[in-house]
């Protein structure tokens, strides 16, 4: 628990490893036992045919809500499934209370189809600023952690995104067509231009990790749900990258962003992608 006079930073210094353990335990108990073993009754649709939820999503989020709340009494959890049940939960991001932002299974479609390209995302935010994040690709047993001002790490190894190799097309992962409106498709279509090589994204959390590792140049996303972006954007920042909305401002987890937005491995790439997106807006 956090002490009365303890800051969030001091809490993280003491308990970050306990957060990692909570994430690993939730995945081990609720996600991995169902991977490639889902029964039909364990998969439901939410807003449409591509918006899936499974028992693994629901149960892992419930477990994380309990365990993270116990680690930091007085904090609240904004989880994807909790917000789906009660949209008012999202308002906690705009308050003064420490908030855990949770996506229990980021890449549910991949999870349902037996693809290992999914992860569990947890971020800790305070007064609208993400201060720490945990990204766990459970099926691959890869764990990434970032703490603001202290760097990004994958399995203990420091991550540096670095600039793209000069002269080649920039690879940009974009919102998957199945999840975009016609208007969003038109905005993203501007990326099909000389010097850019767009492709549909998979798990947002794993795409952000790929940027932090210097394996992907940028993303261009048309939605702003905090659970999809908070953990990964801090990873990108702490690996030396950046993110921009159409107005040239950083993405805000509290919402109200000018979309689409980009995150990239360096500032020059972010400005280039944002500039292309701006031409279509």
What is this entry, summarized?
InterPro entries: Inositol_monoP_metal-BS, Inositol_monophosphatase-like, Inositol_monophosphatase_CS. By secondary structure, the chain is of the alpha+beta class.
Radius of gyration: 18 Å
The largest pleated sheet is described as:
7 strands, mixed
- Low-confidence spans: none
Q: What letter string, H or E per element, gives the SSE order? A: HEEHEHEHEEEEEEHEHEHEEH
Residue share in β-strands: 15-25%
- SS summary, helix count: 8
- State the helicity in percent bands: 25-40%
Structural class: alpha+beta
Strand order of the largest sheet: 3-4-5-6-7-8-9
Provide the residue-averaged pLDDT. 93
Indicate the overall shape: globular
What is the tally of beta strands?
14
**What is the distance, rounded to the nearest whole angstrom, between the alpha carbons of the first and last residues?**
46 Å
Q: Can you give a write-up of this model?
A:
The strands form three sheets. Strands 3-4-5-6-7-8-9 form a seven-stranded mixed beta sheet, with helices on both faces. It has helices at 8-31, 55-71, 80-85, 108-112, 182-188, 204-212, 226-238, 267-279; strands at residues 43-45, 52-54, 76-79, 99-106, 119-126, 129-137, 142-147, 151-154, 157-158, 170-174, 196-200, 218-221, 242-244, 261-264. Helix 1 runs antiparallel to helix 2 (55-71). Strand 7 (142-147) and strand 8 (151-154) form a beta hairpin. By secondary structure, it is α+β, with helices and mostly antiparallel strands.
């Amino acid at each position: 628990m956090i002490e009365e006079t303890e800051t969030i930073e001091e809490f993280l210094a003491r308990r970050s490893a306990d957060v990692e353990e909570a994430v690993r335990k939730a995945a081990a108990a609720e996600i991995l036992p169902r991977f490639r073993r889902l029964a039909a009754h364990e998969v439901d649709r939410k807003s449409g045919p591509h918006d899936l939820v499974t028992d693994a999503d629901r149960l892992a989020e419930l477990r994380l809500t309990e365990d993270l709340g116990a680690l930091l009494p007085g904090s609240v959890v904004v989880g994807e499934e909790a917000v789906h049940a009660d949209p008012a939960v999202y308002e906690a991001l705009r308050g003064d209370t420490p908030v855990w932002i949770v996506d229990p299974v980021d890449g549910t479609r991949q999870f349902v189809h037996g693809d290992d390209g999914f992860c569990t995302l947890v971020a800790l935010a305070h007064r609208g600023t993400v201060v720490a994040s945990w990204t766990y690709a459970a099926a691959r047993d890869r764990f990434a952690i970032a703490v603001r001002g202290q760097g990004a790490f994958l399995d203990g190894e420091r991550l540096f995104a670095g600039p793209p190799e000069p002269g080649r097309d920039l690879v940009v992962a974009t919102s998957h067509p199945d999840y975009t409106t016609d208007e969003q498709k038109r905005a993203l279509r501007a990326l099909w231009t000389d010097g850019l090589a767009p492709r549909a994204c998979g798990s947002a959390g794993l795409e952000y990790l790929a940027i932090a590792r210097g394996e992907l140049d940028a993303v261009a996303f048309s939605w702003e749900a905090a659970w999809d972006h908070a953990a990964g954007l801090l990873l990108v920042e702490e690996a030396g990258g950046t993110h921009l909305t159409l107005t040239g401002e950083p993405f805000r987890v509290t919402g109200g962003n000018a979309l689409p937005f980009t995150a990239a491995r360096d500032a020059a790439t972010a400005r280039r992608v944002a500039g292309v997106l701006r031409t279509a807006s």
